[in-house]
Structure formats: structure tokens, C-alpha cells
Design brief:
heterodimer, A: about 425 residues, mainly alpha, MetI-like fold, 2 domains, about 70% helix, B: about 375 residues, four-stranded antiparallel sheet, two-stranded antiparallel ribbon
Chain lengths: ~425, ~375
């Protein structure tokens, strides 16, 4: 594939070619650079149409001249092999470089040089660039929603506690390892729920009660996705086992459940949780909207989780089942001690991907009126004192989500590689 | 005997559990509805909807029934999905191929494109396009024409409308052209199998596709005129374009966000498909004397498509389901019109949410069934 096509315009001496070609290429890039950053056109003495396309033409000829199969000069060979294998590639290379140079100054000046960050009011934003003051003023709202300012420590400490408890598994002694699954599947969710309930909600131990309507911002995203993950995992496991079961009734019910939830969009599930679900509950039984939403997302994600776990179960060789059966193990013994430990290890990357999708789906709870970060942005955007900064808000939220999701996807990719080599 | 009981009891328990849950919910729903004086039924579908929709494909006004509103809204959903699928396929194939390019810059730009758009929640992307990017467009009076006759403004994208005469004749010609191409393909295949002759199929098909509909203009009395949008002043500061078709900004934002987001997943499918074919296949094909074009057409593509199509269809399905996010920016799709406005007006929560979910469910199941059929068909038959 990496054959290099030749141009006729080159001489026999690679050095001459290199100097001439690089010179032309340098001129073309320099011209675009100067034009983009200082708005001066060094080729302005030419007719306008020609001076627009001249850099492209010059660069193209330059790349054509330096293209050769083997020159003996390391940098040049690397360049040829990577960005300059034929005319088409050379053209695309130039277009990408030019586009990058052209896009840099405006975005830099919008984001940094012409932007404002000082001050506390809209009037502080005098520049033509972004108004980061807006983000600065609203930062706490974007993070914590309408949660009272002086109580933010409760959210912070609850998160720190929950994360710290999540790492406890690493410090288990060797003889305690067998309880690891028990800890993560049953004990940890309960403790985490208690921590979040008592610390963030309050109402006892001398803490002020904060209703869930005030929760919001990024912390709500974390709370919702955390609970949905820890609840949907056991449910998904049961469903996956049900789908693989050889009892027809169990299998059909599991298949029906999974296919139903996978077939509907999350937004309708959320609508269901907010308008239809209260109808299904006993009359005097009130359930908080946040709890309803968490239940709905859990039921929804459990179906996806089940499919991932089923993939792991199917990937196990039959011999594992046969061996366990030949030892006289029953269904549950076989699954708990032989099948699931191996299958779950296989599906960790898949579960990480499901979790990633879950985090990306949580902004949707905005449609049922929970002020998650997208909801807070919508609120801030329509605040009469801060009109007209939608762009900054969405870019800020996009950056935050991008960092979280990118880190997670890289992590799951690493996990995937790790478990691939171990088998 | 013991074994039989062991099999029956868990099944019985599961069924009992499901029946109990359903029964509990139905009972509660009955009690709740009795208390609030709501009765269960689908009679409301025939009632007058009495709300308006901003953007419709078919004629609709407030006097039509809820059923008609449902159909119109469903069409809006399908329109967004259709446009999104087309654009995400085009983008996804380009990006997927670019990710395998030998050019370092192209490969990495494509990789960054994928990483960038895949890791931002779709809802935020839709909001970004709708509330931030499209709001920065000029007002109608200040808009520069794109391609001479179309105008991209803050109120939407104005494009010329096509005014047909005798459209049906044109359509018949088009159908006739497609049918005859299919027949010629079948004939060509037989000819090749019998005599080893190859017809220049692409040129023949293209010729038929151009000539037959072209004839309908010359002979069949079909005419096509374009109605170009023209700027019109409504009040001193209020301008609007008249004539032509307006694509509302909601639609544009939605299609943009959906196709950019989904194209990253399609690109990954395409990349996986192309990478999934071993080099040996290509070398073997070359060694039996096939030309590069034939290798691509007869060896690479059929195998790559077998890997690419199933996951890509899944992405199309995701796109269709994600198009329900339209509700967040007030594009009149199924969720907004039916599960939003109609539900507010009638209060029939169970029926309406049920219909909405069933609609999406049947689209999903239909496509899944189609996919299973396709997978069975293209399966490599091992002996």
C-alpha cells in the first residue's frame, strides 16, 4: 500500500530536490501563517484569485519535488512515508495543515486573548471573545445545582467517602478476597446509598434536610449514574442468566424484558417514570421524582448490561460448564464458583462501555425537570441578567463531559487490552 | 419425577412473580384512575387535537384528530432519522476509511474527530447547535446566498421549492428504469455464467437511469420549475423569505448533531470491517488474476459488508431512537407532539406513553427481524 509514486520534475540529486521542495513548501506555509495570524497577504501583488490558490499550488509542487523512494535523509524519508505518498495524499496533507493554521487564530482569540474572566457581572465582559466570567459566577450552580452554598461540603465529603469505599477492595487481605464480590455487589451499594441519603439529603444527625429538587448540576449526574450502575449490574446479571436458562418460561420472560427495554428510547422511559409510573403505585404512596428516574434508568440500563454479560457467558468454552457439572455441582454452585467469576472478568470492558453510555445519557433527565448540568445551563441561559452566553455554557459543559468520557473510554480500552493478554 | 419438579418450580415462581407485578400495577392503575375519574380507552384518538405543529410534511391543522397528529408526528421523526442516516453514513464511511489512511495527518485527524464527537453527550451537542451555533447565523435581511439561491438564516434554511407537473408520469418512468435495470442485471449475470461475457453494467444502468426519466420531460409533458425564495418585508424591521421551502433550525440542529454523533460509531464499524479482512484474501485474489477493481468489488466489499452491515444497522436504530431527543429543542417529533402536547391535553398517560413506546419498539423489532434475516442470508455456509 505504501508505494511511492514519482514525479517527473525532480533531478537526480536528492539534496537539490530536498532544498528546492522544502523551500517551496516553507513559502506556502509561511504565507498562510502570516495571513492567518497577522492578516497581511505577502502575495497581494498578484491577482486575487491567484494569490488565494498560490500557497496550495506551491506547496503541492514542493511536496511533489521532495517525494522520492529513498533519500537517505531520515526526516525526509519519514515525511514521505507518512504524509506524502502520492499526489492525492499530498493535497489532503496541505489542506489539513492550512485548515488547522486558519482555524487557530480565531479560536485562540475567542477562547483566550479576547475573552474576559474578571468581574462578577455581565458588564465585565467587554471583549469580543468568550465571557468566562459567566462560567465563573455560575460555576457552583453548574456543579451543585440549587443546593445551598454553605452545605456544599456535604456533597464533597459524601463523594470522597463513596470513592474511598470503592477502593477498599484493593486492600483486602488474601484470605478475604472471596468476599470481594459480595462486598461490591451487595454491601457497597447499601453503604453508598446510606452515605448519600444521610449526608446529602440530611434530615437527621443534626443535618438540615435538603429536598432532591435542589440537587443538581454535575453532582447529580454522578449520583444518578452511580446508583444506576450499581443497581443495574445485579439485575443485568440475573437477566443474562435467565436468557441463557434452559427453562422456557424463564428464558422467554428474560428475552421479552431485554428486547422491550432495548427497543424503546430512554426519553420515553423517562416520560413513563414521570407521568405513568405514579399511576401504577398505590394511592397514598409517594415516591420522589429522583428515585423514580433512577429506577427507570436502572431498569433500562439493566437490559443493556444483561446483553453485555450474556456475551461473556457465551464466550466461555463449553468445557467449563461440563467440567463443573461433572464435579456434581448444581446450577447455582456452578455459576457462582465457576462460570460467573470467569465471565464477569471477560465483560469488565463491556461494562465500562455501558457505564460510559450511561453517563452520556444522564443529561436526558433534564426533560423530566431535574436540573442536571444541561438543565442548569438552560436555567442560566434564560436568566435575564446573563442573556446571550449559551455558547460559553455549552462549550464548558462539553469540555467537562469530554474529559470524563474520554478518560473512561481510554480506561476501558486499557482494561480490554489487559484482559485480552491475560487469557 | 424429582427432576421434573425441579424444572417446573422455578418457572412457576417466575411466572407468578411477573403476574403478581402486572396485577399489582393494573390494580393500582385501576384504583388511581377511578379516583381521578379517568377512564381507560383509545376513543380520544378520534377527537379534535386542537393544537398546532410548527413543521409538518403532510397537511395538518388543529381541527384534525389526534390520530392524524400521531401520523404527522411519526413522519417528522422518520424524516429526521432518514436524513440523519444518510448523512451519518456518508460521513462515517469517509471517516472510517480515513482512519486507515497511510497519511499520518489524515489518520490522526479522523481519530480525533471520532474521539471528539463520540465523547460529548448527544443532548449537549443538540443544544450546542440549536442554542449557540445556529443562533449566530444572520437575520433574513442580512443573509448571503449560498449556491446563489439558498439562504441560511437564523429562522432556518430556505431552499428553492420544486414545482412539478405530471409528477406521476415521472415517477412511473423512474420505477420503470429501476425495474429494467434489475432485469438487465439478472440477464447479465446469466450471460456471464453461461458464456463468460461481461456487460458494462454501470454504464448501461446509468444510461437507463438518465434516459428514461429524461424522456418523460421531452415526451410525457413533465415540467419542473423552481420557486426561489425571495426576501419580503413584513414590518419595518421584520423580514422573511417567501416561496421555496423552509427547513426549520430545529431540524437542522437535530440532523447535524445526530449525524455527527452517529457517524463516529459508523466510522468505527467501517474501520473494523475493513480491518477484519485478512491480507491473504487480497493477495489470493490478485494471484488468480483479478484486477484491482474486481478485487474490491468481488472479494473485499462482499466480505467487509458482511462485517460492517449488522453493527451499522444497530447504529441506525440508535439514531432513530436518539431522534426522540428532538423533544428537548421543540422539534415536533413523536415524543414532543404525542407524549408531550397530546398527553398534557388529554391526560391519558398510560395510553399515550404506551403507544409511543410501542411505536419505537415496533420499529426496533422490525429492523431487528430484518437484520436476522439478512444475517442468515449472508452467513458463510460451512459444510
Amino acid at each position: 500500500m505504501r508505494s511511492i509514486s514519482f514525479n517527473q520534475i525532480q533531478s537526480k540529486n536528492p539534496l537539490t530536490n530536498m532544498y528546492l521542495g522544502s523551500f517551496l513548501l516553507a513559502i506556502s506555509i509561511f504565507d498562510v501563517l502570516i495571513y492567518a495570524f497577522f492578516n497581511t497577504n505577502i502575495l497581494s501583488f498578484l491577482p486575487s484569485k491567484l494569490s488565494t490558490f498560490l500557497p496550495l499550488v506551491l506547496g503541492f509542487i514542493g511536496l511533489g519535488i521532495i517525494r522520492m523512494e529513498y533519500s537517505g535523509i531520515a526526516i525526509l524519508d519519514k515525511l514521505n512515508k507518512n504524509i506524502n505518498t502520492n499526489n492525492f495524499n499530498a493535497l489532503l496533507t496541505l489542506l489539513i495543515i492550512f485548515a488547522f493554521i486558519k482555524a487557530t487564530p480565531p479560536s485562540l482569540s475567542w477562547m483566550i486573548f479576547d475573552a474576559n474572566i474578571s468581574g462578577d457581572t455581565k458588564e465585565a465582559c467587554t471583549g469580543t471573545g468568550a465571557c468566562w466570567t459567566y462560567i465563573k459566577v455560575w460555576f457552583k450552580r453548574f456543579m451543585y445545582g440549587m443546593y445551598p452554598n454553605d452545605l456544599h461540603w456535604r456533597i464533597n465529603s459524601a463523594f470522597i467517602l463513596v470513592i474511598a469505599l470503592g477502593f477498599v477492595g484493593y486492600f483486602f487481605k488474601e484470605n478475604m478476597k472471596k468476599y470481594l464480590a459480595l462486598y461490591y455487589v451487595i454491601i457497597y451499594p447499601i453503604i453508598a446509598f446510606l452515605i448519600i441519603y444521610y449526608l446529602i439529603s440530611g434530615g437527621s444527625f443534626g443535618l438540615v434536610w435538603v429536598e432532591t429538587g435542589a440537587w443538581g448540576g454535575l453532582s447529580l449526574t454522578f449520583i444518578v449514574s452511580f446508583f444506576c450502575l450499581i443497581f443495574c449490574f445485579p439485575l443485568g446479571m440475573i437477566l443474562a442468566l435467565g436468557r441463557r436458562s434452559n427453562l422456557p418460561a424463564v428464558r422467554y420472560i428474560s428475552v421479552g424484558y431485554i428486547e422491550f427495554w432495548r427497543g424503546v428510547p430512554l426519553i420515553t422511559v423517562l416520560f413513563m417514570s414521570s407521568v405513568m409510573f405514579p399511576m401504577f403505585l398505590p394511592e397514598d404512596f409517594f415516591m420522589d421524582k429522583l428515585v423514580r428516574v433512577i429506577i427507570a434508568i436502572t431498569l433500562f440500563e439493566a437490559a443493556y448490561c444483561a446483553e453485555v454479560i450474556r456475551g461473556g457467558l457465551q464466550a466461555l468454552p463449553r468445557g467449563q460448564y461440563d467440567a463443573a457439572k461433572s464435579l456434581g455441582m448444581g446450577y447455582w454452585k456452578m455459576h457462582i464458583f465457576v462460570i460467573l467469576p470467569q465471565a464477569l472478568k471477560l465483560v469488565i470492558p463491556g461494562i465500562a462501555n455501558t457505564f460510559l453510555a450511561l453517563v452520556k445519557d444522564t443529561p436526558l433527565i433534564f426533560v423530566v425537570g431535574l436540573a442536571e448540568i444541561a438543565g442548569m445551563l438552560a436555567l442560566a441561559k434564560t436568566n435575564p441578567k446573563w442573556l446571550g452566553f449559551a455558547m460559553e455554557g455549552y462549550i464548558f459543559a462539553a469540555i467537562i463531559f469530554w474529559i470524563i468520557c474520554y478518560a473512561m473510554s481510554k480506561y476501558s480500552y486499557n482494561l480490554e487490552n489487559k484482559y485480552k493478554t491475560e487469557r | 419425577m424429582n427432576n421434573k419438579i425441579k424444572r417446573i418450580i422455578p418457572q412457576l415462581l417466575t411466572i407468578l412473580f411477573v403476574v403478581f407485578v402486572f396485577g399489582f400495577f393494573t390494580f393500582n392503575a385501576q384504583v388511581n384512575m377511578d379516583n381521578r375519574g379517568i377512564d381507560f380507552g383509545f376513543g380520544f384518538l378520534k377527537q379534535e387535537a386542537s393544537f398546532d405543529m410548527q413543521f409538518t410534511l403532510l397537511d395538518y391543522d388543529g381541527q384534525d384528530s389526534y390520530l392524524w397528529a400521531y401520523v404527522v408526528a411519526l413522519l417528522n421523526t422518520l424524516l429526521v432519522s432518514f436524513l440523519g442516516i444518510i448523512f451519518c453514513t456518508i460521513l462515517g464511511v469517509i471517516i472510517g476509511v480515513a482512519r486507515l489512511s497511510s497519511n499520518y495527518l489524515i489518520r490522526n485527524s479522523a481519530a480525533w474527530y471520532v474521539e471528539f464527537f463520540r465523547n460529548i453527550p448527544l443532548l449537549l451537542q443538540i443544544f450546542f447547535w440549536y442554542y449557540a451555533a445556529l443562533r449566530a447565523l444572520p437575520l433574513p435581511e442580512g443573509a448571503e446566498p449560498w449556491f446563489g439561491v439558498t439562504y441560511m438564516t437564523i429562522k432556518g434554511y430556505y431552499i428553492p421549492a420544486m414545482i412539478w407537473q405530471n409528477l406521476n408520469i415521472f415517477m412511473y418512468c423512474l420505477i420503470a428504469a429501476v425495474v429494467s435495470i434489475v432485469f438487465i442485471r439478472i440477464y447479465a449475470k446469466k450471460l456471464q455464467e453461461k458464456e463468460g461475457k461481461q456487460l458494462p453494467l454501470i454504464y448501461i444502468s446509468l444510461a437507463i437511469l438518465i434516459i428514461l426519466p429524461g424522456l418523460s420531460f421531452l415526451v410525457g409533458g413533465v415540467t419542473l420549475n423552481f420557486e426561489i425564495p425571495v426576501l419580503k418585508q413584513l414590518a419595518t424591521t421584520s423580514y422573511i423569505y417567501e416561496g421555496g421551502v423552509r427547513l426549520p433550525p430545529e431540524l437542522i440542529a437535530l440532523v447535524l448533531a445526530l449525524s455527527l454523533y452517529t457517524s463516529t460509531f459508523v466510522a468505527e464499524c467501517v474501520r473494523a470491517g475493513i480491518q477484519g479482512i485478512s491480507k491473504g484474501q487480497k493477495e489470493a485474489a490478485a494471484s488468480v488474476g483479478l484486477t484491482p477493481n474486481q478485487i474490491l468489488k468481488l472479494i473485499i466489499m462482499p466480505q467487509a459488508l458482511r462485517i460492517i452491515i449488522p453493527p451499522t444497522t444497530n447504529q441506525y436504530l440508535n439514531l432513530t431512537k436518539n431522534s426522540s431527543l428532538a423533544a428537548a429543542i421543540a422539534y415536533p417529533d413523536l415524543v414532543l407532539v404525542f407524549a408531550g402536547t397530546a398527553l398534557m391535553q388529554t391526560g391519558k398517560a398510560i395510553e399515550i406513553v404506551g403507544i409511543t413506546m410501542l411505536t419505537y419498539l415496533s420499529i426496533s423489532l422490525a429492523i431487528a427481524a430484518l437484520m436476522n434475516w439478512y444475517n442468515k442470508k449472508i452467513e458463510i455456509k460451512e459444510k
